[in-house]
Amino acid sequence: MQQRTFIGLAGVTLAVVVVTALTLGGYRTGTAVVSTSESLEPDWVDSKLTLAAAVRLDSPAGELNLQLDGDQWRVVERHGYPADNGKVWQMLEQIGDVELLEPKTDNPALHQRLGLRDRSEPDAASVEIMIADAAEQPLTHFLLGNDRPMAGRGERHYYLRRIDDNQTWVASGDLNPDRLASAWLDRALIDIKQSRMREVTIQHPGKPLVRVSRQSADEAFTLQDIPAGRTAKTTEVTAIAYGLQELRLTDVNQVDKAELNWDKVIVVNFIAFDGLQVRVQLQAKDLGIVARLTASGEGDVKAEVDRLNARLSPWVFVIPNHTVSTFSRDLDELLEPLPDEAAE
Fold first, then answer.
1. Which of 119, 316, 334 is nearest to 211 (CA)?
2. How many angstroms separate the CA atoms of 280 and 10, rounded?
3. pTM over 0.70
4. Which residues are CB-contacts of 24 (< 8 A; sequence separation ≥ 6)?
5. Most buried one in 7, 20, 249, 279, CB count within 10 A?
6. What is the C-alpha to C-alpha distance for residues 200 and 191, in angstroms, rounded to an integer?
């Protein structure tokens, strides 16, 4: 009797182990054993991704459009300025990873609670995403809504609804595109190494000219024309020549659209050993420090000058204030304080 009981219990235990293994296997492999999720776009990577030629994002922050021009994505709301190609393609690839985990309401009256009201409706908080091909035919078109409240840390879940479908879903995936046009710009503005620089001059309106220079590339930069009895701040002087090295932008506009007066501005001239010169005109506006860049030079640098001007001259760039301050200081800012000033 006891032997039969033991055998019976062993059989039950074995069955539990088998079911548990199958269940865990379903979780690990994503098989139909436990998984009811489906991909938002099952054939995205294999058949649709390479056809993408236009992106439209419409959100409470406004509408944003990206267009593929040859191999370069461009930001329509920034007059076609180059976008960050890597960032655009990464966002497009993320669409293929979006999983629909759980169906929710299909009642339009409840869409607003999930942040999935149509963009045409009042107070819509949704983000509409449409990816189209070169013929402007949609490849995918859907709304992103609110994040789903989660207990503790874990994979981000959010609400999603396909356009022209009332059914809403809980979805997962890394898709969370930036809403502002400026966030999609190629931020790399110019990169001229400090090692090439021979001299930099800084002219503030109504103030003495600042000039830092050196005779050879292995020398340190020194501040020229220092007033008697004063000494230069070595670190600040050295930093000036790094001004165009990996310089990045935060926003951009066309020169003729910006409607700015360039008569009284800070002018910084970077002069390289090989004859390349880059003039940077700077002024402070409400949106930050704006700049125009113009290259000049002949001989061996002429081709580089032409490339730089073709890319830079039509534009006004917004540059971070902390970056600009390193190469636009006036003379007083580059001098150690006088003894009586230091004592205050």
1. 334
2. 82
3. yes
4. none
5. 249
6. 16
What is the C-alpha to C-alpha distance for residues 291 and 319, in angstroms, rounded to an integer? Answer: 7
Place of tokens 């001259």: 313
Candidates 320, 276, 273; CA nearest to 294 is 276
| Residue keyed to tokens 């050879």 | 216
